[in-house]
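Practice record 12: protein with S-adenosyl-L-homocysteine.
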Amino acid sequence: MWENQYGKKDIKSMTLPQLQEELAAMGEKSFRAGQLFQWMHQKLVRDYDSMTNLPGELRGRLAEGYACSCLRQVRVQESRVDGTKKFLFALEDGHVVESVWMRYRHGNSVCVSSQVGCRMGCRFCASTLGGLVRGLLPGEMLDQIYAISLLTGERVSNVVVMGTGEPLDNYDSLLQFLRILTDEKGLHISARNITVSTCGLVPEMRRLAEEKLPITLALSLHAATDEKRRSLMPVANRYSIAQLMEACGYYFARTGRRITFEYSLVGGVNDTREDARLLAGLAGPLNCHVNLIPVNPVREREYVQSDAGRIQAFKNLLEKNGINVTIRREMGRDIDGACGQLRRSYMQEE
Ligand code: SAH
């Protein structure tokens, strides 16, 4: 059972069957669980008093006995370039997380954080600078989407777990989040419209392959040799690229879902023709999609973006090798778009 920082059970983190059990233990009829689930996860109602078909006495007991992972907006930044909005939310214990809302032609997308901070230590990333504070509850991940839906007044059709944190380092919570998010009695986001991004925790990638959830897995590769990868990502000391490729093959075999490789281009570090050639060698056999991201400069780090010509040449070389490749549009570049930068600048002010 999911509990918050103060030992209270979190009601938003329960699946419908768990909620049924919980209410049964309280002596309630089982259809009440369905009503409550729908209020929280479909109608996105955040206070018990608005749940008008629940008896007042039950509403009181719920308010009394449970936490509900309702996030509070502390800041929002809107990009003047593309309308992307970056939200900073406070959790019940006062920690803050950031989430991003992006409008695309194919629908609205929310980028969700999975942890407060991160312990993976990637050299170019701002999220990991202060280390890991804690993993988020399933309800806290869900409520980033619910709160944004309410604040923008728009439907969310795609979810990417690419905000702060390593989702597979908070595995059980992530899974519970995915189960509730895809539940037809909840927001019912199609698993095909959900992407989970990982820095490459091999055992958890394999475990995820077994879950029978056809979500897209994105692997943050960022280098095509172990040596170079280790210089950018400490996690590369735990798992080799060969092990990663095997895990990707396994994921594809089990789920039929094509893997995405994310590759942040860092000027003078991983953007040569040789890098592109080696990357093509990895992506080709797995039939992966490659997403090139011009690295987003972080104040505390010395890394710079590759210039536009290099990026284009890198892309061309991959394409010539038959690789399906896109250059990620940089959304919200004018609003501290890179992972963890909004939270970081907020904490430095406080
Ligand atoms: N921990 C997960 C998900 C969060 S990071 C992961 O590693 O995949 C989401 C993506 O943004 C990852 O590919 C990450 O490597 C990348 N990223 C982080 N900081 C970045 C930066 N400053 N510029 C470009 N990409 C960055």
